Amino acid sequence: MKKFWRVNDSAVNQISYYHILLFFICLPLDRFFSEIVLVSLAIHTFINLKKADLKAAYDRRVLVLQSIFFVTVFSTVYTTDLHNAFNDWGMQVDIFLIPLLFALHRPLVTKYKDQLLNGFAASCVAVSLVLFGVVFRTIRYFHLPLRAVYSSSFVNHNFSKPVGIHATFFSVLLVAATIILFQNLLNEKRKLARALLLFGGAVLFAALIQLSSKSAIISLVIVGYIFVPLYLFKGRKRVLLLAGSVVLTILGALLVLRYESLKTRLFSDMEADVNMNRIELVTDSRLDRWKVTLETARAKPILGYGTGTEDEVVQQAFFKHKLYHSFIHRLNAHNEFLSILIKSGAIGLAVYLFVLGYCLTVSVRDNNLLLTTCVILLISTSIAENALDANKGIYFYGAFFSLLLLSIKTSPKAHIKRQNVQSEATLTPAVTC
C-alpha cells in the first residue's frame, strides 16, 4: 500500500497533487469542501497552464466523459425554462471541468493514481469511524441500549447526516473504497498493513449495512460474485472466493433480518416500491413515478422537453395522475435514465448509454476492477436516483471515471491494434514450394 501523504516531485506538481488528493479526501464530506478544492485546483491549473498541455484536452476519453454536459448544453436550445436550464449548467459544468483538469494533469494522476485512491479510501474509513462515534456517543448520552445502533434513528440518512452527504452517494463512495482496500489487501505482504486493511474493510462493510442503500449493496454483490472472481482469481482460488462471498452475504442478511429498521429499509421498502398489486396507497411509490414519467416522455420522444424543464413537467404529470405525495414534496423522477429522457429525449439517453457502454467495455478489456465497479455503481444509482443531478454524483462520475480512464495507457482501439500486431508477429511463416 503506497503512502499517499508524501510524494517527491517538483513544487508545482506537488501543489497539483495535494489539490487532487484533497479533492478525493473531501468526497465523503459536505459538497462545500469539494467545491472549494475544485475551484482552487482550477485556478492553480490555469495559472500554470502551458500551450503544449492543451493537446491533452483533445483525448477521446475526455470528450466521451464530457459528452453528457454537451447534451445538456444542446438541449438548452429548445428549452422553455432558461432560468432552470442555466441552473443545470451551473451544476453539471463540473462534468466538463473535472475531466479537463485531470487530462491537463494526466502524467501526474497516472503516476500517483494508487496514492490518490489510497487517500480516498483512508478518508472513507475515517469518516465512517467518526459517524459511528457520533452514533455511540448519542446512545450513551440518552442511555439507550446498544442494540439501538440499528434503530431507524441511526440508519440511512440519519447515519450520514452529520457530514452533510446523501446516504446513497455516501454508500457509492464506500463501495468504491471497499474495492480499493480489497485490491490493496491482495497485493500487501506485511502483516500489520494487512491487519489495517482488514480493519478498514470491516468498518466500511459495517457502514454500508448502517446506510442500507439498496443500489450500493446490490452493486457490491454483483461485483463480488461476478467481476472479482472473473478478473482476479482462477481455479480453486475462485471457488474459495465465491464461498467466502456467500458467507459474508449470509452474515449480512442475518444481521439485516435481525433488526426491524434494516429489514424495513432493505426489503419492505423495496417491495413497496415495485409492487404493482397494492390495494391501498399510503405514499406514491418509485415505480408509480417511473410509469408517469415514462408516459410523459412519450409526448416528445426524440429531443425531450429541454434542459431545466424536468421539475415543471413531472410535477404537472404527478398532479394529473393524482400522485399527490410526489407533487407536494416536489419529488423528481428518481431515475437518471428517465430524467435524461424527459430533458433530452432519446438522443440524450443514447449518449448516456454510450458513455456507460464505452466505460464498461474499456474496463472489461483492461480487467480494471475498480472502473467496472464504478460503472456498475453509476448504473444502479441511475436506476434509483437522478445520479447526475446531484453534486456528489457528478463528483463521483467526474473524478473516478476521469482518473481511471486516463490512467489506462492505451485507448481500446489502440489496444486492439496492438493485439493484432502481436498476433501477426507470432504467426508461423507460410512454407512455399
TrEMBL record:
Swiss-Prot/TrEMBL keywords: Membrane, Transmembrane, Transmembrane helix
Organism, as annotated: Mucilaginibacter agri
Cited Pfam families: Wzy_C (PF04932)
Signal peptide residues on this chain, from the entry's feature table: none
Presence of the UniProt keyword Transmembrane helix in the record: yes
InterPro entries according to UniProt: O-antigen_ligase-rel_domated (IPR007016), WaaL-like (IPR051533)
Protein name listed in UniProt: O-antigen ligase-related domain-containing protein
Intracellular or extracellular location(s): Membrane
